[in-house]
Design brief:
heterodimer, A: alpha/beta, Rossmann fold, 6-stranded mixed β-sheet, 4-stranded antiparallel β-sheet, 17 strands, B: 17 helices
Chain lengths: ~525, ~350
């Protein structure tokens, strides 16, 4: 048995997992239209490959990765591209973003897939390329391009692959369901991932509130030829945070500002493992995912096998939405999810849950009261921060103090705000604080760059002036030498002669006036002219 | 269809400032009951009169400050302040003493700084110290406890409060006064006198144990952490052990006497645990509590005032931000040398 470590803080909100009947996967059918955002991941949006009016087949790339940190988007079924335009996408600020809209034709015709059963014969690089081409981004919530994570791990020696089956957020049972219905595929995916990064050990962490998923994974793991260890640990939010899970399973903390690969660890979500397995073995790109539809405003909550791009409204109908009891539509769980303002928003690669609570179930928060520094937030913080202090500093816009109190180690889990007796939306203060610090840093970087440019220009101007001065001095010295050599020549006569020469029409005046060579002529030291110099 | 847009988290624990404050009020009951048993209804009358006054003042000030008075009154915080102050005041205090004390606490202790959450000092202790310095005579007249004298009745209490000049109280030195004024007696002889009771003082020992019981209940309810109270009591015990001097006539008094007399337990569980004006981190609260414990002992033994909790608390309130600066907990990923 692996030793399980405890993390600081954490909370025990009502789990409410049984509501969505984990383990039963229901089909979500085919909506009339699919809306596929070009940006379903962290990084640059994908580049469109199709045109409006074009017929596309299932599995066909609709957009390609734009640069390294980007992933392509594929058609989940066959149909016609009817629009490429800005639509509402799942985003905390209610952004609209470029989306490809497909009118599904119901035939579900697919491009032929290119399976690869003997993947062990391939080089890790070739496998990573397949992962990239399949459009896989982390399916646990952040959506970081999986191929990039695998490449970054390449620079470090990875000895353990951790599959994060924690799913600590209340209500969500998408990973729980996946672990029950596709445990073998998760193990296969984990084997491929471990092969790619050269990890000797696979470690699967599951919270102890999912006994069915745990036993399914244990059964599947026993069949594997590799060293696969399944670890169960006590339920506590937010044990599923990557850094928290690493501490629970290994006792190590990921140093601030570093990545798990620095400890020889790589974390992946079970959904990502299955997507990798499908991409390698079946040659199938990522076009579907499991989504939990839950909350008491649904008469038939459950887990659905959903095509990416499916409008949430389509799923709400399937799950028996009762609008009269509901005021909020949440993308993700109750702790870290964000509220959506309309149901036309599509499911994307990171959509693990749509939570539709009644007002009674998750009441609208009352107005915040004063912070009394009771410290319950510090007791709950999994990062051992002092949330009450960060709150005061954020209100005071004291960026130095915020950084000194490690604001950027906040994982925005919401445990502090959950326990706050004054109902202060603490996480929102931290998000705003981080954003303002990032703004300041960017502003500083910009002004630094401008200052460097300005200084370089000043330096160049000074240097040029110096060079001119040096040339002038050299010419002056040469002229003096000439005068000295001429000996008896009268300087006044010489000046008259020069003036006469200048009046000749063949001489371009403009040239002379800017030519530093005229300087000695007007120099009062050598020319006893009556005109004042300059 | 448009949905409500609220930031995460979307749920909340069943917990509010109001419940915290109400729990603290409830937890004072054992101590208040013990005070009433040994010293009569004076404390109850203090609390009732002070509470009414505090609510009235808070309402007026909130109105003057243009705040939603009903919303803020609902947090019960002003009742906690007035109740803690009135418990600390001697029973059978004249009405004007309570008026000055409550007004100082609510106005100077709290609202001039911006209300609940913004006060750098414990408001109840601000009121207490202003009274102690301004009216030392009234503030050090404690009634003799049950067992040494007859306990006054309700009418006596009303008379004492509203017609103070016509009321003759039976007052006597508290054990702590006796200890400080002791010149020639060995500790054993001093403590064999009736006012010292079984452990640390007739009445006082029970009152202290009752407040400790209420405090432990608050700990169990997780209203505050153990750090500050335990550090304070431990530091006091240690200081008293060192100063005990084998029980000679120049002894500072035994640890038991210090732990169970005066406002020790009331201070440890109800005053220094005020989160607003204390240090914020657990480590910080250990330092905060320990220094208060040490100061209480030093002021009790060497100072001129009947008790020292209020002074020690106010001095450490000053120091709290400084303590915070040096006791920041180690954030996740910041162990070992900085990356």
């Amino acid at each position: 048995m692996r030793r399980i470590y405890d993390i600081h803080g954490g909370i025990h909100p009502p789990e409410r997992k049984a509501l969505s009947q984990p383990g039963q996967l229901r089909p979500a059918g085919m909506p009339a239209q699919l809306v596929l955002p070009l940006s379903q991941h962290i990084g640059k949006p994908a580049e469109v490959l199709v045109e409006v009016g074009e017929r596309v087949l299932g599995g066909q790339p609709l957009a390609q990765a734009d640069g390294l940190v980007s992933v392509p988007v594929h058609a989940p079924t066959s149909g016609t591209v009817i629009a490429i335009e800005a639509r509402s996408v799942p985003h905390p600020s209610g952004l609209t973003n470029q989306c490809i809209v497909i009118d599904c034709d119901g035939q579900d015709a697919w491009l032929p897939l290119a399976p690869l059963v003997e993947w062990q014969q391939q080089s890790p690089d070739a496998l990573v390329e397949r992962v990239r081409a399949a459009g896989i981004a982390g399916m646990g919530g952040a959506g970081f391009p999986t191929a990039v994570k695998l490449l970054a791990s390449d620079k470090h020696k990875i000895d353990t692959l951790i599959i994060n089956g924690t799913e600590c957020e209340p209500y969500i049972t998408a990973d729980d369901t996946l672990m029950q219905v596709a445990a073998d595929k998760i193990i296969e995916g984990a084997e491929i991932l471990a092969f790619i990064v050269g990890a000797e050990q696979i470690l699967i962490g599951v919270e102890d509130n999912k006994p069915d998923a745990l036993s399914a994974i244990q059964t599947a793991a026993a069949k594997s030829k590799r060293a696969v260890e399944v670890a169960s640990f006590p339920t506590k939010y937010p044990s599923g945070g990557e850094k928290q899970l690493i501490e629970i399973l290994t006792g190590q903390q990921v140093p601030s500002g570093r990545i798990p690969a620095d400890l020889g660890l790589l974390c992946q979500n079970p959904g990502t493992a299955v997507a990798v397995r499908d991409a390698i073995i079946e040659g199938r790109p990522l076009t579907r995912r499991i989504v939990t539809l839950t909350g008491e405003a649904l008469s038939a909550p459950g887990n659905f096998d959903v095509m990416l791009g499916t409008p949430i409204a389509h799923l709400l109908t399937l799950a028996g939405f009762q609008p009269e009891h509901n005021r909020r539509l949440i993308h993700g769980g109750p702790m870290m999810g964000f509220a959506l303002d309309n149901a036309e928003i599509p499911i994307v690669k990171t959509s693990n849950c749509i939570l539709v609570p009644t007002e009674q179930e998750l009441p609208t928060p009352p107005p915040a009261q004063a912070c009394i520094r009771c410290g319950l937030c510090a007791e709950a913080c999994p990062a051992s921060l002092l949330p009450q202090q960060l709150y005061w500093f954020a209100r005071a816009k004291d960026q130095d103090a915020l950084e000194a109190h490690n604001l950027f180690d906040c994982i925005e889990c919401g445990a502090c705000a959950w326990v706050c007796p004054s109902n202060i939306p603490l996480v929102q203060y931290y998000r705003a604080g981080k954003a303002s610090i990032i703004d300041t840093r960017q502003e500083k970087a910009r002004s630094d760059r401008l200052r460097e440019r300005f200084e370089a220009r000043q330096e160049r101007i000074a240097r040029e002036a110096e060079e001119r001065e040096a040339k002038r001095a050299a010419r002056k010295a040469a002229a003096e030498q000439k005068v000295a050599a001429g000996g008896s020549e009268d300087p006044v006569q010489a000046a008259i002669a020069r003036a006469k020469a200048r009046k000749q029409p063949t001489e371009p005046m403009a040239d002379q006036s800017t030519d530093p060579a005229v300087a000695p002529v007007t120099d009062p030291a050598t020319t006893p002219s009556k005109e004042p110099a300059e | 269809m448009a949905f409500l847009r609220i930031t995460s988290p979307h749920g909340h624990a069943a917990n509010s400032v109001t419940t915290v404050m109400q729990t603290v009020l409830l937890a004072t009951l054992p101590g208040v009951f013990a005070l009433t048993w040994f010293f009569g209804p004076g404390t109850l009358l203090n609390i009732a009169f002070g509470g009414l006054l505090a609510l009235l003042l808070e309402f007026t000030v909130l109105k003057l400050r243009g705040r939603d008075a009903r919303y803020y009154l609902n947090d019960f915080s002003v009742l906690v302040t007035s109740t803690l102050l009135c418990i600390a005041l001697p029973p059978y205090a004249p009405w004007w003493l309570i008026v000055v004390g409550v007004a100082t606490s609510v106005l100077l202790g709290k609202h001039v700084f911006g209300g609940l959450g913004y006060n750098p000092f414990n408001p109840a202790m601000v009121g207490y110290v202003v009274l102690l310095i301004s009216f030392p005579l009234q503030m050090s007249s404690w009634t003799a406890p049950r067992g040494l004298a007859e306990v006054p009745g309700v009418l006596d209490a009303l008379q004492a409060m509203f017609l103070p000049n016509s009321y003759d109280a039976v007052t006597m030195a508290t054990p702590l006064d006796a200890l400080r004024q002791n010149k020639g007696l060995l500790m054993a002889d001093l403590q064999s006198q009736p006012p010292f009771g079984h452990l640390a003082g007739l009445g006082w020992e029970t009152v202290n144990l009752a407040f400790a019981a209420g405090g432990i209940w608050l700990l169990y309810k997780r209203i505050f952490t153990w750090h500050a109270p335990v550090a304070m009591l431990a530091a006091m015990t240690l200081a008293a052990l060192i100063g005990f001097d084998g029980g000679s006539s120049s002894s500072g008094g035994s640890p038991v006497v210090h732990l169970l007399s005066g406002g020790t337990m009331f201070g440890a569980f109800f005053i220094i645990t005020d989160p607003v004006s204390s240090a914020v981190s657990n480590r910080g609260r250990l330092v905060f509590g320990a220094l208060i414990g040490l100061l209480i002992y030093i002021i009790r033994v060497n100072g001129n005032y009947p008790d020292a909790v209020a002074f020690a608390v106010l001095i450490l309130n000053f120091a709290a931000p400084f303590i915070d600066h040096y006791t920041q907990p180690t954030t996740y990923g910041h162990r070992g040398p900085k990356a």
